[in-house]
Amino acid sequence: MKIKKTASIFGTLVSLFLITSCQNAKVSSKPNILLICVDDLRPELSSFGANYISSPNIDSFAAEGVAFQKHYVNAPSCGPSRYTLLTGKYGPSGNNALFRRANKIKKGTEKIDDSMPEWFKNHGYTTVSVGKVSHHPGGRGGKNWNDSTEIEMPNAWDKHLMPVAEWEHPKGMMHGLANGQQRITSASTDVFQSEKGDDYTYPDGAITDEALKQLRLLTSNNEKPFFLAYGIIKPHLPFGAPQSYYDRYDGVELPEIAHPQKPKGKTTWHGSGEFMGYNRWGLNPNKNKDFADEVRRHYAACVSYADAQVGIILDELKRTGADKNTIVVLWGDHGWHLGEHAIWGKHSLFEEALHAPLIIQYPGMQQKGTTTNAIVETLDIFPTLCDLTGIEIPKYAQGESLKEILAAPNTPGHTAIAYTGKASSVRTSTHRMTLHKDGFVELYDHTTMEKENKNVAEENSEVVDSLKRVLNNRLLD
Description:
Elements: H1 2-28, E1 32-38, H2 56-62, E2 66-68, E3 71-72, H3 78-87, H4 97-107, H5 116-121, E4 126-131, E5 140-141, E6 147-151, E7 159-161, H6 170-174, E8 192-195, H7 204-220, E9 226-232, E10 239-242, H8 243-247, H9 273-276, H10 289-320, E11 326-332, E12 337-338, E13 344-345, H11 351-354, E14 358-361, E15 370-372, E16 376-377, H12 381-389, H13 403-407, E17 416-419, E18 423-427, E19 431-436, E20 441-445, H14 461-476
Parallel strand pairs: 1-9, 1-11, 2-15, 3-16, 4-7, 4-9, 8-10
Antiparallel strand pairs: 2-14, 5-6, 11-14, 12-13, 17-18, 18-19, 19-20
Helix pairs in contact: 2-10, 7-10
């Protein structure tokens, strides 16, 4: 009996040792990363002040993290904005920015710094991308964006996935309407649509399904931490979402469009070519209030549809238990004008095109459910994730870690830079200055009622000179 008892005690101690060791290993392992990218999402969310919007899932997530109310993207277009997110560097202003980088890698004539997913991959992470993370959903080129010989981000992802369902190919998914319909031309495609059906009626349902599948695979294998990037297409044009989401806005009173007039003088205003190129039944939202409100309701429906997808993935993360060791980032790739400055779309250097939501949550976070008005930019996400995971921040990363702000949301931020092919802009806590390639300057004082409706450059030469130095120093680094 003594021998059996001793053996039993020994076995128990070994078991306890193994359990404790496993637990310690799990606690000390590097946190996972879940990056959620939402296309064309301006801060049109209840948690960002748009109280008429139904966004319960993102709002619940914000209540468990830190919401950056003054986050600005580095370019008002999908391709170059995602370039800065995924490389941590300023880059070309066109939508082909990442493909240009890929071509340089292919040529092999110069050293190209690791992208963010490649950096984490080289530091022991399994990297998986689902949906629209880089500019092309699925990260491939070719006529239908499914040519495996044309990779948008070489060496970045262990898996770079894009389900197509009945939309046939990634390009069909990107501009997909209901039930497999594809945009053949913009002019023959309605600018908005709402069809009865469940979430699979539109492309994001299939993308979310694949993201769930990958999340389950990643969480069932604890050998390596994971970096899962999940990209939702809506609310990108054309504005299509299941009828049930549109119905949420039946009878909801929309706020008046702020400063709807076309600005006077030289600005980065444009004629909303992308939006106006769709079938609008001969209507112009700048001249027809009812039509403008209908467009806004369909945009809101798309936001609610995207919000539902976010809820599905976050619920699954929690169900697996991996939420306890996962950093979650929700990021909008740029803003979107809904009639402000008489623009319907992105591509300007006004506030509306550059202001996008950013929410970060991580294990052990002390400041849950707080907001910060610190000015930050997309470029900061790469160094922040390195800092939170304990991985070295690469010297070439041009942003700043937000770890200090996450710990103390009242911490001041820094200037935010943005650019197009024709101009560049800098945002401070008080001003925005936009410098055109020909030297013309727009300066807006955000401490006044006029904000970006009155150019005050001529009477503020010292501010202009100071911000020119900031802009030039940052972009030339």
